[in-house]
Amino acid sequence: MSDQAFNFAYLDEATKRMIRRALLKGIAVPGYQVPFASREMPMPYGWGTGGVQVTAACLTPEDTLKVIDQGADDTTNAVSIRAFFARTAGVETTTRTGEASVIQTRHRIPEEPLVEGQILVYQVPIPEPLRFLEPRESETRKMHALEEYGLMHVKLYEDIARHGEISTAYAYPVRVEGRYVMDPSPIPKFDNPKLSDNPAIQLFGAGREQRIYALPPYTQVVSLDFEDHPFVASKAEHSCDLCGCGTSYLDEVITDDRGGRMFVCSDTDFCETRRAQGHRGRLAPEERT
Amino acid sequence: MYVATKGGERAIEAAHQWLAEERRGDRDVPELSIAQIREQMSLAVNRVMAEGSLYDPDLAALAIKQARGDLIEAIFLIRAYRTTLPRFGASLPVETGEMAITRRVSATFKDVPGGQVLGPTFDYTHRLLDFKLAAEGTTPEAQRKSADETPAPHILDLLDRDGLMEPLETSEDTPSDLTREPLEMPADRPLRLQALARGDEGFVLSLAYSTQRGYGRTHAFVGELRIGTCAVEMEIPELGFAVEIGEVELSECETVNQFTGSKTEPAQFTRGYGLVFGQNERKSISMSLVDRALRWEELGEDNTGAPAQDAEFVLYHCDNIQATGFLEHIKLPHYVDFQSELELIRRLRREAGAEEREAAE
């Protein structure tokens, strides 16, 4: 089948309209999970079908798209999704955070602050923050409706009782504008503060679970915690070994079989930009002259 | 020296080329044609059509070829293709009572109007490998007789006439469609049946089996199992009447199960129902058992906590395309989440170690 056999950005216009309606509802009720009739996509469930559908519904021919997975533009699934839209929508793609109008992400928020007019699309595996406390959808919907979040606080308290701190390191639950408890997708909790008061539109798509939710620009998002155990956005206590940045989120890379390891920025675009500006980390290759 | 991994794009391209070569296999062996798969792997084709929710034997055969015989992968290809198809409308309900029967058995009556027809079944074959097939022998033609013109009405309708069966629910409502609307709980029976008809054969089989072993027991008899082709008719608005647009092969199973009733209401048998594209009696029988188990609430039975009684559990987990995608996604990179856990576990260990040292001092 030729590429022309597909509509712009793959989905037919009726499907995109259905998704846009869900997005508008999500924007109107921040943090509320809107059921939508997720379609079968030509990539597997669990691999970003929700994000892909949201991106498809948002893209216009003038958009510039960036796709990251684990912060990186060149991980295989990011490459695959970027190629999908380059082929079916013919939009321009970029790896530069600042140049992108739409960014689809899995598990990270870019280090470079987003600006007004940008859209950040998250891929979400399990949209329900209460799912592992209550497996039944009919129950969790009721709990959200009644604002019954006691179970979540008990879970966090039990963490502290057992480990001395809240032992959730990613997909750390947040409360949106004092109302809905929301799963921020499996971003590290280091990224949680960036959810709040963000000038960009943040959209969350869960394809297999058929849910969409959203944070309009400048929405207040608070990570759940206790007064005596405040939320801390933690990261590895190192600097990037390539660009020297001490404030970015780091990936750990095992370099030999004798315990050798190095730490590098998980956001590849951020790291490359810094190195191009002349920043050097502990293990950065020598400047070639 | 560490270099940030590059070349995902090249790796993907090379992997796809390798895959195509593996799919073809030894080039000295003749390549399979779509027609060969369609004609000689017809039960695989049927399964792909049933769980792919698209009745097209040629496309199903193509999908099986492309998927190297991995049926779940083939079902995935069909599902992804199916969503791109425009919808012109809906057919009239198929009249399975008027099916051109190739197989029809009842476990509840020795003989029935229209008779029992064994048809092309593996039942009563001795499962011995037939080495003649490996020797590329010719298959002799089966004996023939002319078709029986006696009508073969649904057997449960005969019980129904005596008031022994619970009456069929009828409704003029258009049933909901889980491929067009998000699945929401509680799901009514048409929606449950749709999910089961598309559901994974193995999963539905195991659930049905679990009811037989006591996890939500329903005492099922196969009232009737029929396989054959049915005409599909559609009303064309411009014409103002229905025309036949094709035919589909279907497997339909109706079970007779234990009773409802009370001191005031006379006891009646209850029903389970299964309907699947193609010849697939295992799936249709399984489906009817699970359907019946899921009806515990409306029939006033106890919920014993059995998995097959739990509609949320069954419906949210029976789709193998959802299941396989989510299962296999854990092989995607999770560096970021794993890193955050590493950092957490190191901190917890450090803090626990510090406390121990303090206690020792």
TrEMBL record, chain A:
This is Alpha-D-ribose 1-methylphosphonate 5-phosphate C-P lyase. Its EC number is 4.7.1.1. It catalyses: alpha-D-ribose 1-methylphosphonate 5-phosphate + AH2 + S-adenosyl-L-methionine = alpha-D-ribose 1,2-cyclic phosphate 5-phosphate + methane + 5'-deoxyadenosine + L-methionine + A + H(+). Belongs to the PhnJ family. GO terms for molecular function: 4 iron, 4 sulfur cluster binding; alpha-D-ribose 1-methylphosphonate 5-phosphate C-P-lyase activity; metal ion binding. It is an enzyme of class 4 (lyase). Catalyzes the breakage of the C-P bond in alpha-D-ribose 1-methylphosphonate 5-phosphate (PRPn) forming alpha-D-ribose. GO terms for biological process: organic phosphonate catabolic process. It holds the Pfam family PhnJ. The keyword Zinc-finger does not apply. Keywords: 4Fe-4S, Iron, Iron-sulfur, Lyase, Metal-binding, S-adenosyl-L-methionine.
Automatic annotation (TrEMBL), chain B:
Keywords: Lyase. GO terms for molecular function: lyase activity. It comes from the Bacteria. Pfam families: PhnI. One of its GO terms (biological process) is organic phosphonate metabolic process. This is Carbon-phosphorus lyase complex subunit PhnI.
